């Protein structure tokens, strides 16, 4: 994003205390909350979706992964579209798209339609997710921008924290379809406010052709590899081998395109920083484990332990509440002692939490079995997430901070979707396992040590590779963060392009 070059541009920027500033904050929180809520509430609804649509486990995996494939593959392109064509315009388009896809999810007559609708939802999420933060940075006066970002991340964190509870209440009450239909009234409120009160802005330096080919190859790679993992054992081994090889070829093609393009979606030179590469490897490990855990835990609590959807959703609240309350303090601690210790200790504490989940079986007591594991897991996530983001930003030049954060966010989502695809295969979970308490419970007990082992690998990588950043490095702006599927997105430079009247 471009920086204002004169005092006049600052005079046209919006002040946070003004009525317009409050409207801008409201619409950006509403928009980002739509995507954040979906990332936490759908897991709780999976058993009910399966029963209502007579879907097998593979269809439930795709219900999560179809969304993640398009979101992870297109989120960098979504940010670039906003810079070029106007951040408000792309944000509003994303909200409308997301709501329309949510409506299609809510009325889906079968699993196939639901999966297609979830993929469309991911496209909307890729448009609105980077746009909400970009609008704040572009609209507010520089003196108010830091506080506005803090309020945006804090209110968004509250939305993420109530997501599992809200999802469980909706599933047990009006039904799982309202998990998706809820986005429609949110969009109806968000869009008029954005059109009326949010100033348009764009980056005058944005030029060149969009990297559509790179985005398509990245998404195709994720989709084909995911398909091969989910369908393993259900389809011909030869066919799945061909699909997996095609997916890897698409990944190689993505790297080739990004290396050759003058204006790539993901400039590969940022990986010349050894620390940036190392931190992204740590990200892949920890978010693969988190993605696998949150996919299985909500189902385990309902199918094996006998919890209602509301009970399962409420049971998971301690993780997000701890992140809401303590993530800012964790970031401050990481600044004082450096990221190496938090990024080493955090995954180890999370691994202990996952191993404690082995006590969660039939008729599990929440106070003695579930809560201790989730408290330990939450403390581990608090320890590592804020320092992880700060280290990503500190590992590259300031001008690449925004793209570095986007790459890290996309890497986390890709790791999560691959874990959701691979864990049932690795644990021998059959296509109807979620209908059987014994079958699912056995697979869950095999999955938790696997996830814990991946976290230990992440801790070892962090200890061996992460170093303290230089004092003058870029600091994270999002101090409060509760999303369990990916680290927070951060903007580019501290100054954003002035709003257009």
Secondary structure layout plus pairing:
Layout: H1 7-12, H2 19-53, H3 57-85, H4 87-106, H5 111-139, H6 142-172, H7 177-181, H8 183-197, H9 212-230, H10 237-260, H11 274-304, H12 309-315, H13 317-337, H14 340-356, H15 366-394, H16 401-426, H17 437-465
Describe this structure in words.
The protein has 501 residues and is mostly helical. The protein has 17 helices and no strands. It has helices at residues 7-12, 19-53, 57-85, 87-106, 111-139, 142-172, 177-181, 183-197, 212-230, 237-260, 274-304, 309-315, 317-337, 340-356, 366-394, 401-426, 437-465. Helix 6 packs antiparallel against helix 12 (309-315). The two termini are 18 Å apart. It is a multi-pass membrane protein. This is MFS transporter. It comes from Streptomyces bluensis. The chain crosses the membrane at residues 23-46, 58-78, 90-109, 115-136, 148-170, 176-198, 210-230, 236-257, 278-301, 307-328, 340-358, 370-394, 406-427, 447-466.
What's the Cα radius of gyration? 21 Å
Largest sheet: none
N-to-C SSE string, H for helix and E for strand: HHHHHHHHHHHHHHHHH
In helices, the fraction of residues equals over 70%
Stretches where pLDDT is under 50 for at least 5 consecutive residues are 1-9, 494-498
Tally of separate helices: 17
> Termini separation (Å)?
18 Å
* Helix-strand makeup class: mainly alpha
Number of strands: 0
Mean model confidence by pLDDT? 86
Strand percentage lies at under 5%
Globally, the shape reads globular
Summarize, please:
It is found in: Cell membrane. The chain is 74% helix and 0% strand.
């Amino acid at each position: 994003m471009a920086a204002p070059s004169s005092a006049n541009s600052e005079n046209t920027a919006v002040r946070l205390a003004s009525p317009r500033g409050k409207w801008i904050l409201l619409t950006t929180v509403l928009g980002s909350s739509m995507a954040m809520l979906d990332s936490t509430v759908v897991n709780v609804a999976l058993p009910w979706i399966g029963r209502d649509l007579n879907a097998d486990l593979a269809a439930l995996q795709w219900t999560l992964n179809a969304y993640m494939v398009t979101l992870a593959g297109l989120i960098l392109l979504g940010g670039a579209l906003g810079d070029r064509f106007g951040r408000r315009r792309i944000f509003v388009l994303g909200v409308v798209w997301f709501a329309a896809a949510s409506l299609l999810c809510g009325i889906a007559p079968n699993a196939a339609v639901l999966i297609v609708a979830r993929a469309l939802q991911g496209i909307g999420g890729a448009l609105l997710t980077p746009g909400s933060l970009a609008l704040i940075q572009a609209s507010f006066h520089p003196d108010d921008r830091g506080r506005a970002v803090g309020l945006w991340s804090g209110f968004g964190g509250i939305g993420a924290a109530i997501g599992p509870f809200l999802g469980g209440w909706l599933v047990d009450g009006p039904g799982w379809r309202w998990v998706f239909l809820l986005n429609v009234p949110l969009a109806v409120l968000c869009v008029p406010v954005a059109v009326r009160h949010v100033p348009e802005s764009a980056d005058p330096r944005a030029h060149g052709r969009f990297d559509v080919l790179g985005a398509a190859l990245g998404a195709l790679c994720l989709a084909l590899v995911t398909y091969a993992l989910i369908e393993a054992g259900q389809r011909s081994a030869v066919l799945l081998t061909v699909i997996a090889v095609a997916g890897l070829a698409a990944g190689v093609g993505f790297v080739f395109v990004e290396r050759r393009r003058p204006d790539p979606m993901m400039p590969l030179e940022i990986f010349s920083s050894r620390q940036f590469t190392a931190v992204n490897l740590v990200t892949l490990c920890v978010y693969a484990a988190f993605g696998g855990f949150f996919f299985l835990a909500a189902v385990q609590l309902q199918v094996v332990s006998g919890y209602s959807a509301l009970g399962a959703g409420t049971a998971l609240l301690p993780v997000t509440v701890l992140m809401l309350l303590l993530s800012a303090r964790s970031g401050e601690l990481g600044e004082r002692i450096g990221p190496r210790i938090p990024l080493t200790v955090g995954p180890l504490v999370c691994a202990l939490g996952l191993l404690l989940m082995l006590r969660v079986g039939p008729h599990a007591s929440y106070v003695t079995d579930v809560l201790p594991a989730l408290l330990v897991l939450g403390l581990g996530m608090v320890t590592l997430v804020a320092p992880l983001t700060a280290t990503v930003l500190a590992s590259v030049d300031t001008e690449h901070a925004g793209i570095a954060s986007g790459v890290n966010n996309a890497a986390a989502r890709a790791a999560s979707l691959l874990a959701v695809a691979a864990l049932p295969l690795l644990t021998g979970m059959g296509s109807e396992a979620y209908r059987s308490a014994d079958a699912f419970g056995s697979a869950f007990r095999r999955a938790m040590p696997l996830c814990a082992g991946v976290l230990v690998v992440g801790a070892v990588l962090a200890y061996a590779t992460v170093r303290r950043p230089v004092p003058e490095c870029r600091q994270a702006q999002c101090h409060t963060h509760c999303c369990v599927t990916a680290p927070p997105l951060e903007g580019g430079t501290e100054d954003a392009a002035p709003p257009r009247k």
